[in-house]
Design brief:
single chain; 464 residues; FAD/NAD(P)-binding domain; D-Amino Acid Oxidase, Chain A, domain 2; Rieske Iron-sulfur Protein
């Protein structure tokens, strides 16, 4: 697009959050998706989605070349592997879908030299990997040269006509607005709160003396189902790998430390690992039909757009909105728009399942939290940097002891989005919502939506 004045706002800081904690696998191979799309939709939709993902990969590569970005972009083959012979038939079904759709790929039986045993591998050729932070730092420099204004620590709270109000009370007037906030913060208006399930997964960066080939990006289908990719460019004695996995839905509330330890143990079974550099948790929005939501935010406004629900494959599906929404703003047609429109037919059975189970899961986790026995706020003893859910009379509160002084932060334990009980995440020092994925720091400030309001907070001294 040309001739548009562009402003970007970010709740925290750019290149943080999910952007910094991602496996960055740029691929159209997204699990056993294409046999699913053929069954649930049709062959035309399945092929069109593959085309859209390959077009996004090509766009990423073209932008990098045009602006000479140092993003370690390189082409690799995507590989889904199975360990058990009983799982081979599932790969065979997906391989048949590849053949039907004309996808460049093949099924192999132990045809890749890997440092661990497999029974079969499904290859999709000409996929990609990169270093997202390196790449996006270059993008930021390009944006600055083009006069794009960026406001960090600025959160959108509400819309009124063509005016966005931020958390600090400022107003931004717009001609067009794109809501690309992971989970749309205006979710009530589009019923988005019941359109996504939140999946949490974990990542681990290690060096290894027994790496897989550099020209493949691996994804396990059975067993622990780990993803594995190389990180190119790190100045280490041994090759550097990024393992991902141990995913679960947010309402299952699994302990982050336990999940990371399981990921470490499974990763050590795949390769002989040396140093461990970094570990993290990420969360993704999952849609009923496994396709993203890209297009008009609602049916009442033709200048409000949304990009969300990337189903763990954001590297391609954050590029696709730039292609689709720019065409919509310019009044041009886009061949992919109808397929991923938020207002598409998502399939009756899929929608019923999503809309029925999402509130039931929220109620189930809320019921479990109500039955838990929490310590009394006056009896609990916390070390500096620790937090816990506590009882304060008849109410539940979140309690955190500051590391720098003897102050305690006492926050409301109810998410400001829809009132779900919050859980304490010790490694990240955050209050996390199991229902829709909102997150708050220990001071109660929103760091990830859909919540837009901070938690009520009271600060107490150690001797209060």
């Amino acid at each position: 697009m040309r001739g548009h004045k562009v402003t970007v706002i970010d709740t925290d800081y750019v290149l943080g959050g999910t952007t910094a904690n991602t496996t960055a696998r740029i691929t159209a191979q997204q699990g056993l998706l294409y046999s699913q799309l053929i069954k649930q939709k049709d062959k035309e939709t399945a092929r069109l989605y593959y085309d859209s993902q390959m077009a996004a990969i090509e766009e990423l590569e073209a932008i990098g070349k045009k602006h000479n970005l140092d993003g370690d972009f390189r082409r690799v083959d995507g590989v889904i592997y199975v360990e058990e012979e009983t799982s081979i038939s599932e790969l065979e079904t997906e391989a048949e879908a590849y053949q039907t759709l004309g996808i460049d790929g093949t099924l192999l039986k132990q045809g890749i030299d890997l440092p661990f045993e497999t029974s079969a591998e499904l290859v999709m050729r000409n996929q990609a990997e990169f270093h997202p932070l390196k790449y996006l730092k270059g993008i930021l420099e390009v944006l600055e040269e083009k006069g794009v204004t960026i406001y960090e620590h600025t959160r959108g709270k509400s819309l009124d006509g063509d005016m966005l109000t931020t958390n600090d009370g400022n107003n931004i007037h717009f001609k067009n607005i794109i809501i690309a906030t992971h989970f749309p913060f205006l979710d009530y208006q589009g019923f988005y709160f019941n359109s996504f399930k939140i999946s949490r997964s974990y990542g681990l960066v290690v060096t290894t003396s027994t790496p897989p080939p550099e020209n493949v990006s691996l994804s396990g289908h059975d067993g622990p189902s780990l993803t594995t990719r190389h990180i190119i460019g790190r100045d280490n004695e041994h090759p550097t790998l990024l393992f991902g996995g141990m995913g679960h839905m947010s309402y299952m509330e699994k302990d982050m430390i336990d999940q990371l330890e399981k990921l470490r143990l499974y990763a050590d079974q795949k390769t002989i690992n040396e140093e461990r550099f970094y570990a993290y948790r990420a969360q993704d929005s999952m849609t009923a039909d496994s396709l993203p939501f890209i297009g008009c935010f609602d049916t009442k406004h033709d200048n409000r757009f949304v990009a969300a629900g990337f189903n763990k494959y954001g590297m391609t599906n954050v590029v696709l909105p730039s292609m689709i929404i720019s065409d919509l703003i310019e009044g041009s047609d886009n061949r992919y728009h109808e397929m991923v429109s938020p207002h598409r037919n998502k399939g009756v059975l899929q929608q019923i399942k999503q809309h029925a189970t999402t509130p039931m899961e929220s109620m189930s986790v809320e019921a479990k939290n109500m039955l838990k026995n929490y310590p009394n706020i006056d009896d609990v003893e916390l070390s500096a940097g620790e937090g816990a859910v506590v009882k304060d009379g008849m109410l539940k509160k979140g309690l955190y002891k500051d590391e720098e002084n003897n102050e305690y932060y006492v926050v409301d334990n109810r998410c400001t989005h829809m009132g779900c009980s919050l859980s304490w995440n010790q490694p990240d020092k955050t209050w996390d919502c199991p229902c829709h994925g909102s997150r708050f720091n220990f001071k109660g400030n929103v760091i990830e939506g859909p919540a837009t309001e901070d938690l009520d907070v009271e600060i107490k001294k150690d001797n209060d």
